[in-house]
């Protein structure tokens, strides 16, 4: 694997980190990542158009939300919100052509009896997360990050215990402590690509926007449950029990977000659960 192969994703990582720095940084790095993606073949055909449409829909929703005063305005906000939700989901799955997943590490068994696991990266889900946190809810901040992480710690402990006990009982994994240098590559990809993208979509967009849709005191709790349920359904390929595990995890991530109003908290708990799974249990699942 040559340096040019990973260049688009290094630039994409810079774009993600740029969310905490300045809009010029993340937008500039994203444009450079797209150009590098076409050069290396990670992006093909109409991929840039699909991302541009996603950006336009994100901006349109934010514009409709911020000017919503009358019933007509609120209806426009609801329509643009649903359209962006459906489009971002389609792009992230990914259902739109032109996005090529680049394999960085070939599949291998990390523990005895484990299903083979490899590392591959792609653009669509990460770009959807970037647009949400960059255009719709730019809530990232370096201020008070230590306090946010401290408040997240008990949520991480509770969520990790709940999810890992459930998956152990259901036979998805087994206790298997290990160290592999693969973790050094897996960790930043999981935190800044997977966790950021999924928490941006389910917490900073779905949960946050639903919670703000009504002034009713129960709405934040309802939004938390809906976002967690949708997150669980995203794991449908693992079967019903795996969906339940996803819902349980999503409740924990949503709790961290609700407790701090910061998506960094949800990211930290999400990454903490994933890292515990990776380092202490059979990963990704028993074969």
Could you describe the 3D structure shown?
By secondary structure, the protein is mainly alpha-helical. 69% of the residues lie in helices and 4% in strands. It contains 10 helices and 2 strands, in the order H-H-H-H-E-E-H-H-H-H-H-H. A two-stranded antiparallel sheet has the order 1-2. A hairpin with an 8-residue loop joins strand 1 and strand 2. Helix 1 runs antiparallel to helix 2, helix 5 crosses helix 7 and helix 8 runs antiparallel to helix 9. The longest helix is centred in the last third of the chain and has 30 residues. The chain is globular, with a radius of gyration of 19 Å. The two termini are 28 Å apart. The mean pLDDT is 95.
Structure keywords:
single chain; 287 residues; mainly alpha; two-stranded antiparallel ribbon; 69% helix
Can you summarize the main beta sheet?
2 strands, antiparallel
Average pLDDT: 95
In angstroms, what is the radius of gyration? 19 Å
- Sheet-strand content, in percent, reads under 5%
Structural class: mainly alpha
Q: Fraction of residues in helices? A: 55-70%
The strand count comes to 2
For the termini, the CA-CA separation is 28 Å
Give me the number of helical elements: 10
Unreliable runs: none
Q: What is the topology, as strand order, of the major beta sheet? A: 1-2
H-E order:
HHHHEEHHHHHH
Note the overall shape: globular
């Amino acid at each position: 694997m040559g340096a040019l192969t990973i260049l688009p994703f290094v630039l994409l990582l810079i774009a993600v980190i740029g969310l905490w720095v300045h809009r010029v940084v993340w937008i500039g790095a994203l444009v450079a990542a797209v150009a590098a993606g076409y050069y290396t073949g990670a992006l093909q055909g109409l991929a840039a158009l699909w991302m541009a449409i996603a950006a336009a829909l994100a901006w349109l929703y934010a514009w409709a939300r911020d000017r919503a005063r009358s019933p007509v305005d609120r209806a426009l906000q609801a329509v643009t919100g649903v359209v962006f939700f459906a489009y971002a989901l389609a792009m992230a799955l990914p259902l739109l052509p032109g996005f090529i997943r680049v394999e960085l590490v070939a599949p291998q068994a990390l523990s005895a009896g484990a299903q083979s696991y490899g590392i591959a990266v792609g653009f669509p889900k990460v770009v959807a997360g970037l647009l949400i946190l960059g255009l719709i809810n730019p809530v990232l901040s370096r201020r008070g990050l230590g306090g946010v992480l401290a408040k997240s710690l008990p949520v991480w402990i509770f969520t990790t215990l709940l999810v890992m006990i459930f998956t152990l009982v259901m036979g998805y994994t087994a206790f298997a402590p290990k160290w592999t240098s693969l973790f050094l590559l897996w960790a930043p990809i999981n935190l800044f690509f997977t966790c950021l993208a999924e928490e941006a979509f389910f917490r900073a967009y779905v949960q946050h926007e639903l919670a703000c849709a009504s002034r009713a005191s129960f709405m934040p709790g309802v939004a938390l449950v809906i976002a967690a349920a949708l997150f669980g359904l995203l794991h449908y390929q693992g079967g019903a029990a795996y969906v339940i595990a996803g819902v349980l995890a999503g409740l924990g991530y949503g709790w961290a977000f609700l407790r701090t109003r910061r998506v960094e908290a949800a990211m930290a708990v999400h990454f903490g659960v994933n890292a515990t799974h990776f380092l202490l249990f059979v990963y990704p699942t028993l074969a």
